Amino acid sequence: MTPTVGKVIILIGAAILLVGVVVYVFGDKLNWLGRLPGDIRIVGKNGGGFYFPIVTCIVVSIVLNLLIVLIRKFFG
């Protein structure tokens, strides 16, 4: 392994830690996440169902892409 791989692993760990702290501190205020208009929810008659949060996935993807672009702009 090279030192570059070690740096990438440390950055990934720091990002996971940051997400964990945000969820821990603001968890009760993030109830809207996963319940956005456009998320697909099908409830069956016997209590089963299908749920796919497509709009939430799109929003999270856009935010993560913007963060990556900003990180690359300032540190790359």
UniProtKB/TrEMBL annotation:
Record-annotated membrane-spanning stretches: 7-27, 50-71
Pfam hit, one: DUF2905
Statement: the UniProt record of this protein carries the keyword Transmembrane helix: yes
Top-level taxon: Bacteria
Keywords, alphabetical: Membrane, Transmembrane, Transmembrane helix
Alphabetical list of PANTHER family matching this protein: BSR5223 PROTEIN
Protein name: DUF2905 domain-containing protein
Provenance organism: Fibrisoma montanum
Lineage: Bacteria, Pseudomonadati, Bacteroidota, Cytophagia, Cytophagales
